[in-house]
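In full, the data.
>
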Amino acid sequence: MPKSPTQQSQSHPPRYWAPKYWPTWLAIGLLNLWAMLPWRWQCTIARVLGNLAYYCARRRRHIVEVNLKLCFPLWSATERSRRVKDVLYNNMLGLVETARVYRKGGAAGIPYHFELKGTEILDSALEQDRGVLLLGAHFSHLDLGGAIVASRYRPYAIYRPNNNPLFDRYIYNGRSGFMPGVIERNDMRAIVRTLKQKQIVWYPPDQDYGRSHSVFAPLFGVNAATITATSRLVKFNQSPVVVMSCVRDDERQCYTVEFYPAPHGFPSGDDVQDATLINQALEHSIGRAPTQYMWTHRRFKTQPDGRAKLYK
C-alpha cells in the first residue's frame, strides 16, 4: 500500500489491527458493501441515511440550515427545510459515490455516463507549459469529479490528512488509484514543484481556515474568511488558473464536469479583490446545483469581529 506523506513521516506506524481501529475497519467494510449494491439501492440507502441525519444529527443539520439561510435568504422556510434534506441526502450519496470510484480505480466506478465541457479552456492553459491551478469546490461528489477529470487528464489533488490514520490511508490509497499523486495541503513547496513540472493541481479554496493567511471577501453576500494562497501560488510560477464544476443530473443520468476561464482581472495584485473574484467564480459553480455542495461545514465560522456566533 502506498503511504501518505503523513504516514511516511511517522517513526512508529500505527498498528491497524489494534482494537481501536476495529470500528474504522467495520465502517470501511460496510461502505464497500454499500458500493457493491445496485445503484438504485445505493440511492435509497442514502435517502434513508439523509433523513436519519436530518432528525438525529441536529448539530450538523443546524449548520446546513444556517448556511442556506445566509446564502439563499429568499428561500421560504418550507423551501429551505426541503433543501436541507437534499443537502444531507447528497452528502450521504457522496460517500458511496466516493467508495465506487475508489473500488474501481477511477471512472469505471461512475454509475451514470459523464461528459467533460470546456476542455479547450484547460487544453489552452496547459499549452502555456506552466502547469495549471484547477480551482474546485467541496461538492459532495468531489472524488467522483476528480475521477472524471482523470479519465482525460492527469490531475494532482490537494488533501487534508484525516485525523484517523487508517481512514487517512483509505482515502489516500483511493485517490492514488486514479491520480498520479496526492499532495498535503500545507506542503506549499510540493504544490509549487508540481506546477513547475507543468502538471495540473486541483486546489479547493472554499473552506474556512481561520484568520491566518486569509482575508474577508463576500461569498453569496456573506463575509467569508478566504485564503490568499491561491494568488500566491499563481505568482510563484505564473501558472494559469482554470475553474471547475461538477454536477450530477439524475434526470439525464449524467455527471457533467465543466471548465471555465479564470475570473476576469485575476490576479489583480490585491488580496481582497482576488479573494472576491475567486468567491464569485465559486458562487457560479455552486449555484448550478446548490444542494450538491458540502454545506455541512461551518464556512462562515470566522468573522471580522472574531466571534463565531453565526452557528450558535
